[in-house]
Task: inverse folding
């Protein structure tokens, strides 16, 4: 084991390999407040990458209703229970990561889902009562909230899948930090399936290999956002590049949201993987639950987000989500407009801070018709 610095937990931790950050890191921000669980992202991925034989239960992108939704079943609860207490001392995590909690002879603390755990992708959907299936129930209070958590592979800085592979079949690309499984090396031992705490590696029984989200790397290489991003109906997603905190730039949209405004937070940072998908937490769910999911930054992130309407920079940048199919490396606000920029500063797209509203006449004189869709 080596010592590696993980800024999300504010300290160094044990990891199987020494710290080796890529030249730049693919990353994303998801604004949970805007997700409507339409599952268009899920289908966009399914129809692009996982429509083959043996991939029937693979959802490289899935959207689950929290707190009762989970795919595969109990992916989060099982591990959190095994890990035990997860205390934070301010911004420093005082508990053990899954690398530090691994038993002797193991590289990662993990568990492998059973086949049946993959059988209910929509369990708990739109549910705040805890009913699970066929009358089964979680013992939980009836809640007056739930929210949608869209999940893909986090292309972690310290991937558990990569650390656990005895064949060295999983690698993190130095040019963009995307984590891939070399299909020609993989022998299907499924150590990665067991190790990934987010359960984002899937075993294909037909090919005998493990498969996972590839961040649509053929699109990324052309400067385009992945399929689940550009097809998102709620416009909740923005793909880009994230710098380490000490190199954060205000004109990089992801750095701005994650490091400068600290409004977007990692999923289960206490596990120690430094995941690279960041979430703007939902404003209507209790802090206690959200803090276990997204760490101690939740109250401040929600406070900042709530002030968005009076914060033209933040509101403007959030307006760029879903406005272009290109990856957005830079951005700039000018008065009531915000622009997505390329690396060289050239404009990709420009959107107004406030959408103009046009009120149409009830009677359309040109076509001599009364519209029924307006008063
Ligand atoms: S989310 Fe899982 S599959 Fe993706 S890089 Fe991290 S450990 Fe690997
Ligand atoms: S397409 Fe967007 S809005 Fe629809 S479920 Fe996926 S993330 Fe949510």
Result:
């Amino acid at each position: 084991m080596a010592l590696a610095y993980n800024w999300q937990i504010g300290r160094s931790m044990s990891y199987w390999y020494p710290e080796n950050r890529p030249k730049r890191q693919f990353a994303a921000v998801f604004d949970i407040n805007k997700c409507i669980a339409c599952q268009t992202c899920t289908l966009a991925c399914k129809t692009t990458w996982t429509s083959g034989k043996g991939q029937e239960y693979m959802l490289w992108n899935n959207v689950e209703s929290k707190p009762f939704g989970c795919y595969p079943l109990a992916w989060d609860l099982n591990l959190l229970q095994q890990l035990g207490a997860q205390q934070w001392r301010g911004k420093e995590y005082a508990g053990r990561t899954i690398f530090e909690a691994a038993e002797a002879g193991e590289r990662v603390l993990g568990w492998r889902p059973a086949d049946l755990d993959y059988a209910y992708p929509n369990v708990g959907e739109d549910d705040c009562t805890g009913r699970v299936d066929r009358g089964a129930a979680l013992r939980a209070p009836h809640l007056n909230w739930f929210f949608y958590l869209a999940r893909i592979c986090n292309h972690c800085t310290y991937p558990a899948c990569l650390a656990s592979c005895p064949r060295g079949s999983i690698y993190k690309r130095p040019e963009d930090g995307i984590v891939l499984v070399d299909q020609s090396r993989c022998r299907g031992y499924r150590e990665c399936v067991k190790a990934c705490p987010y359960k984002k590696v899937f075993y294909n029984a037909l090919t005998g290999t493990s498969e996972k989200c590839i961040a649509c790397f053929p699109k990324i290489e052309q400067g385009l956002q992945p399929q689940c991003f550009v097809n998102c109906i709620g416009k909740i997603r923005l793909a880009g590049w994230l710098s380490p905190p000490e190199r954060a730039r205000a004109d990089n949209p992801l750095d701005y949201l994650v490091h400068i405004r600290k409004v977007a937070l990692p999923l289960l940072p206490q596990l120690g993987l430094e995941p690279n998908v960041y979430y703007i937490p939902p404003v209507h769910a209790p802090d206690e639950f959200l803090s276990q999911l997204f760490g101690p930054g939740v109250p401040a992130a929600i406070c900042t987000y709530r002030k968005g309407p009076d914060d033209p920079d933040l509101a403007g940048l959030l307006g760029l989500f879903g406005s272009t199919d290109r990856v957005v490396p830079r951005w700039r606000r000018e008065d009531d407009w915000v622009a997505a920029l390329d690396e060289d500063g050239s404009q990709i797209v420009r959107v107004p801070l406030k959408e103009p509203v046009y009120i149409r006449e009830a009677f359309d004189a040109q076509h001599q018709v009364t519209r029924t869709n307006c008063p």
User: Anything to note?
Assistant: The first helix runs from residue 40 to 49. The first strand starts at residue 2 and ends at 6. The chain has one domain: 2-279.
